[in-house]
Amino acid sequence: MRSDRLHLGQGWILLLVWILSTIGCPTPSGATGPQPLSEITVVYEKDRWHVVLAGTRSMTYRAIKVVDPLRLVLDLVNTSNEMHPKPLVVDNEVIGTIKTAQIVHEPQPLTRVEIGLNQNASYKITRQGKKIWVSFNTAQHMTNVEPIRIEPVVEPKVKQAPVTMAVATPKPLPKKPIPPSKPLGKSSLASATKVLSIHQLKTEHELRYYIIANGSLADYVFFHLTNPPRLVLDLMGVKATEVKDNLSFRGPWVKKVRVGVYTSKVRVVFDLTPEAGLPYDIISGEDRLAVSFKPGPGFPTR
Question: 81: how many CB neighbours lie within 10 A of its CB?
């Protein structure tokens, strides 16, 4: 009888230990839910170009450089892709186009970031809190190779009897008319009907926004206003936009970017921080407009 009570007490103790160990075990790090890749920015600091990937917590990655075409590939583990499907076109001396895609969905998401390279630049990857910084050297490191010297070939001189030949005078060829050159500055694309995306490019001395569409944005009207300070850009003939919400970017001078659809245009408004405004410039490309802001005393004179 005493032996039965002893075994019964030991059984209750083991059951209690199992329950407490089950409840008190911390959740393993691998069971943490996936995080989103929410932002990609390109920054120029300290004579280097940086691609900054931002999430909601520290991200785990694998990186490899691939050739043909030349690019740097980063696989973000347990990370879902919330970036716009339109590639981010940077096209500077080092970085070409940045593409993102979620290549694995279940059971654990995997997002791939491909950074196209315009030169075989060295790079360094660092983690800073919730961000991954991919830094590229801007200077090309070329190996100095001594050019191959080709010695001149000396042929032996052979004395020959002079030969007299009759040379016919060639007839002048008929002159062909030179076709007129195509006028410069005109886009070969059809006029845009939809805005696809808006991207930010930040450097030490400039803040640039790319408005990308499905065609040419050559027909536009712009003006600036005060109280509050803002730059208004009307894209004439554009009837739709995939940018639905107000955009808030990290950086100085611009608080947010607003997009609205009207009967015959799409309006893009840049809400500025300085009360006097900023110097700005607008450059038209094939399928985009580049709106550039630089530090200065205020809006340019009209």
Answer: 20
